[in-house]
Every structure is written in C-alpha cells, then in structure tokens.
C-alpha cells in the first residue's frame, strides 16, 4: 500500500455516502443556478445595465422584469444567496467523500476518463470559485482584483456546463448507490457497527480501511447540522422581525438602528459623495419628456397626490426588508412631464460616480400603481442615507436600481428615438 492509499483509510467513504451528499446538491444547485440567472434578467440586460453587459452568445432572452408579485426579487435573490451559503458544508462533505479520486495516478487511462476528469476539474474548480467570490462579495471584500459581476457570470456558465455533464455521466451510479442500502438503516447504525462498503468500480472505497472514528449517521449529521447552522445565521437577512437579529454572518443583515429609518443601508450618503448642500432647500427634481423640461422642488412634490405602499427592497448581497414608502406615483410624474404612456424612464442620481448612479426602468415598472418617487418612509422623511430628498421604489426591482438622491427622470415615449 503506497503513501496515498495509507492516507485515505476511512471506512465511511464509498458510493452510498457520496450519493447522499450528491443528491442534496442535485436538488439544491439547480435552484441556485436558476435564481442567479433570473436575478441577472432582473437587472435589465435589454437596457445594458446588467453586468457584464457584453456576454456574447451567453445573453439570456430579454423581457421586462415583472413587478408582481412585489416580493419576487426578494425571493429569487434571497434564495440564491442563502442556498449558496447553506450548501457549503454539503459541498465540502461531497469533496471529502471523493477526495482520493482527485489523486488517482495515472490521472487518465482512456478518452472517456479524460472527459470525465475534465468535467470534474471544471465542476470542483467552478463551485469553489463561485462560493469564494460570492462570499467575498457579500462581505464587500474585493481582494481578488477583478470585476465580480463578470467573473461570477461567466464562472456560473462554466460551472453549470460541468454540472450538467457530471450529472449525465454519474446519475446512473448515484441511483445504484442509493438503492444499495436503506437510508434509514444507515442512519441507525452506530460507530461500532459501521463497516466499509464493498469495493466499487469508481474506487471510492478504501483498499485497506481503518477503524471508524464516526458513523455514517454522524457524517450526515455533521454536514446537515453545519448547513442548518448556516441557515439560522443567514436566513434572517431576508426576513423582517426578530429573526433578523440572527443574521450574524451578513454585514447588512441586522437592524442598524432604531426609528422609522432604522433598516439596512447598502451605500451611505457619505460613501456616495452627496453633499448636504445638494440635498437642501436648493434641491430640484428635473423631469424630461416629449421634448419638454420642468423642475419641481420638494414642496411641489409633497403637494401632489401622495400614495403609500408597503414594499420590500432587496439587494444583490442577499438582504431585504419591507417598509412603508410614501411619495408620488411615477406614472403621475410621467403624465406631468407629458408622457402618459412611457416606454421607459432613465433615473439619475446626485451621485456622480459608481455603476448604479443611473437606472433605466421599463414601462411596466414606471406604470405600476405602487411605483413611487418616495419622499417619506414609515411616516417620516427619508434619512440622508436612505435617499433624502427623494428616491425611487418599485415593486420587485433590485435595490441598486431603486435610485437614491434622485436628481432627474427622463421619460421616453413610445415613438422617441
């Protein structure tokens, strides 16, 4: 027995345990993939405001992201981030269960095996890359030195291709392994009664297994318990109420302070470089449409019909919160600008730098009855960090497109160039 074989002697390794972890990933990873792609669509690639903008033939079919249900983006983004975090112990458990195969020598014995190992390399490398960059993005740490959006998008497609190929190749083995022994019986087996599986074609079972230091029940419980713990420490960021205090892993997940404006802030007024004199008494909202331009101060906006809507605001990092927003309907502003049936609207912020200082809203987003230029939240004026003197809030819209410190709205008519 060589040095590598002596290193991998756990009697737990084998097709059954690998198949159990693999089944969990087979169920959950498609949800992570699908919600990630839906979130890309929510950013509006048809307006060149989803990043990366140039994706070649990987561009998804364009359609106007719906405004109903109003919690749609809250669910898709919350699922994408939360599941991605919760699955980390499962991914690590699965990698541990097949670790000896990564050191096979010679690494390739046939063309079929070469293709299988290539998909395995892309699968393992892809999922570790997506997890690492995703976690760093959640923590606002961009130490990797490249654009997160571009790397995460193309990395997702590489991983997805490898995942599909791996499932096609390994699915028959997974089914056979799960049928090889009853799940309940394995979970009832103690450490003392734990025995290695029979030798398998993939060589997952150790050649000379050592004594068990934990049962298969313990191995499954360790991974499941780790996933449950991460769920408890994460899911509160997507929920309002007491559970938000349990979101200990997320920088924006907990309640940042008391009062009506005491909910998470992604980008503060100081970080945006918006100065107090820009948002004071001299602030004006510029409306453009149909070749006309007009300006309104905050008192003029407050004099217009006010509407209140309880809507969530959700960010790409996974956090979300539902608040009561009050302001002027965007469709009323469009009519005031002379474009009662706009095809789109470009909203610009006082902020002069940053990827999201402007946002284009589709027609359905402008015309939704709950789409607002919000002036107040929870019965009080917006705080500077939440966008005073005015911000956009639209049902199901990604938070970065709910522009704060609004300076201008340009409504485009159906026949505008």
From TrEMBL:
Descriptive protein name: Oxidoreductase molybdopterin-binding domain-containing protein
Lineage: superkingdom: Bacteria
Residue span(s) of domain Oxidoreductase molybdopterin-binding: 276-412
InterPro entries, per database record: Mopterin_OxRdtase_euk, OxRdtase_Mopterin-bd_dom, OxRdtase_Mopterin-bd_sf
GO molecular function term, any single one: oxidoreductase activity
Keyword Membrane: yes
Keywords: Membrane, Transmembrane, Transmembrane helix
């Amino acid at each position: 027995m060589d040095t590598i074989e002596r290193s991998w002697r756990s009697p737990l390794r084998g097709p059954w345990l690998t198949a159990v972890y693999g089944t969990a990933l087979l169920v959950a990873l498609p949800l992570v993939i699908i919600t990630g792609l839906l979130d890309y669509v929510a950013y509006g690639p048809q307006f060149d405001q989803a990043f990366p903008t140039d994706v070649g033939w990987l561009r998804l079919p364009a359609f106007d992201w719906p405004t109903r249900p109003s919690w749609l983006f809250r669910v898709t983004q919350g699922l994408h981030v939360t599941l991605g975090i919760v699955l980390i112990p499962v991914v690590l458990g699965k990698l541990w269960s097949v670790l000896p195969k990564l050191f096979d020598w010679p690494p390739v014995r046939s063309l079929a095996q070469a293709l299988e190992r290539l998909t395995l390399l892309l699968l393992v490398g892809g999922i570790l890359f997506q997890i690492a960059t995703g976690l760093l993005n959640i923590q606002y740490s961009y130490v990797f030195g490249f654009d997160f959006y571009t790397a995460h998008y193309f990395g997702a497609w590489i991983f997805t291709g490898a995942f599909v190929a791996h499932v096609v190749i390994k699915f028959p083995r997974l089914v056979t392994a799960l049928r090889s022994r009853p799940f309940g019986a394995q979970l009832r087996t103690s450490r003392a009664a734990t025995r290695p599986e029979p030798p398998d074609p993939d060589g997952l079972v150790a050649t000379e297994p050592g004594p068990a230091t934990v049962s298969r029940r313990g191995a499954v419980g360790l991974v499941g318990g780790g996933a449950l713990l991460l769920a408890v420490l994460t899911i509160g960021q997507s929920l309002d109420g007491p559970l938000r205090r349990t979101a200990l892993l997320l920088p924006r997940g907990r309640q940042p302070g008391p009062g009506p404006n005491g909910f998470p802030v992604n980008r503060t007024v100081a970080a945006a470089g918006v100065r107090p004199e820009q948002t004071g008494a001299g602030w004006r909202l510029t409306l453009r449409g149909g070749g006309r331009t007009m300006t309104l101060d905050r008192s003029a906006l407050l004099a217009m019909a006010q509407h209140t809507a309880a809507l969530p605001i959700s960010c790409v990092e996974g956090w979300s919160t539902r608040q009561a927003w009050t302001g002027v309907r965007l469709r009323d502003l469009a009519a005031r600008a002379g474009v009662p049936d706009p095809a789109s609207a470009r909203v610009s912020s006082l902020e002069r730098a940053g990827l999201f200082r402007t946002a284009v809203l589709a027609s359905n987003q402008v015309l939704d009855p709950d789409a607002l230029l919000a002036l107040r939240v929870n019965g009080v004026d917006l705080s500077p960090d939440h966008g005073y003197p005015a911000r956009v809030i639209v049902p199901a819209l990604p938070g970065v497109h709910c522009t704060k410190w609004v300076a201008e709205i340009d409504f485009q008519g159906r026949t505008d160039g």
